[in-house]
Amino acid sequence: MKTVYAIGEVLIDFVATEHANDLVMAGHFAKKPGGAPANVACAISKLGGQSAFLGAVGHDPFGEFLLEVLGKEGVDTHLAQRTHTFTTLAFVSLSAQGERDFVFSRGADKELKYDKRLKKVFKENMVHFGAATAFLGGELEGAYGRYFFDALTQGSFISFDPNYRENLWKDGPERFIKKCLPYIEKAHLCKFSLEEAQLLSGEQDVDKALDFFHQHSEAIICITLGEAGTRLSVPKFRDTIASISVDPIDTTGAGDAFMGCLLYQISQLENSFELAQSIPVLTQMVTRANRAGAHTTTGYGAIPALPDTQDLEKY
Ligand code: ATP
């Protein structure tokens, strides 16, 4: 079994516990572990896989809490870095009409430093790049690029999820899009939400978006479509893989559960690089990953709602 190294941010989401028109009005908040790459690492280990998280937290109680949560979920955190800057925080409120208000207090995640010893561990393993905060600058941006170069030169299986957050790119998405393209070109697996696929390709139609990506990339591309399942595409095959029917109560983390489940299955393969040619195997894996995403919507929060193997057997 290969280890999946998940690189990017981990943070605290302070989520307003009651509907409020905006954060000015919101009064009470619940502390939730967040950060897509950290969720993906948890999703992998919860299914019995090997994952390690590479990101930075502060020397403060929130940083301690986050590493404790990841550790309890079975994620290897010994590569995570602690800095003297405060742990990254996000505050979110939701109005009764479903409108979100969001502020982001960026802290420790931006200080991830490059560690050249990782070259050796990436070899024959897998590296997952989650980009929500990676291209916002700071030391993380440089370290991220160097880890990407290492993963490429070490022949690792590379996966990429842009995790676009509109609130973080107030001047517009152009720089974000430009930064993502080399990762899409070189990755072996990319996962986009429909909105991300449209943004990154400039195409509204899902298949035109996929055509655009395959002009630049031979990756396995999954466009997640919520209850409609996943549009799966490799250069020689394309299909929509249906999900299962569930009664969702909180969709947070569905995409990360999907990605974690897919990466977990790929980590079990002898030769991950041949997966794009094994369409029945790939389709089966995406079917299972859809179940993981669907299952996560049936519980509150991202990490607490991730499925284990027994949960997936139920479907
Ligand atoms: P995120 O909100 O975490 O950024 P995302 O938008 O990438 O995620 P979704 O498309 O919401 O992810 O969900 C990922 C996968 O989970 C979908 O492709 C689908 O298979 C499954 N899924 C999500 N919501 C539902 C649902 N309501 N019913 C059935 N399956 C679902």
What does this structure look like?
It is a single chain. This protein has 315 residues and is α/β, with parallel strands linked by helices. The protein has a single domain (3-9, 35-84, 109-313), classed as UDP-N-acetylmuramoyl-L-alanine:D-glutamate ligase, CATH 3.40.1190. The protein has ten helices and 14 strands. The protein has helices at 36-46, 61-72, 118-122, 139-153, 174-186, 194-201, 206-216, 254-267, 279-296, 309-313, and strands at residues 3-7, 11-16, 29-34, 50-54, 56-58, 81-83, 89-94, 100-105, 126-130, 157-161, 189-193, 220-224, 230-234, 237-241. It has an eight-stranded mixed sheet with strand order 4-1-9-10-11-12-13-14, sandwiched between helices. A four-stranded mixed sheet has the order 3-2-7-8. Helix 5 (174-186) links the parallel strand 10 and strand 11. Helix 1 (36-46) packs across helix 8 (254-267). It is globular, with a radius of gyration of 18 Å. The structure holds adenosine-5'-triphosphate. The site of adenosine-5'-triphosphate has 21 residues, from helix 8 and helix 9. Residues 193, 224-227, 229-230, 243-244, 246, 248, 251, 253-256, 258, 290, 293-294, 297 line the site of adenosine-5'-triphosphate. One of its GO terms (molecular function) is kinase activity. Pfam families: PfkB (PF00294). InterPro entries: Carboh/pur_kinase_PfkB_CS, PfkB_Carbo_kinase, PfkB_dom, Ribokinase-like. Keywords: Kinase, Transferase.
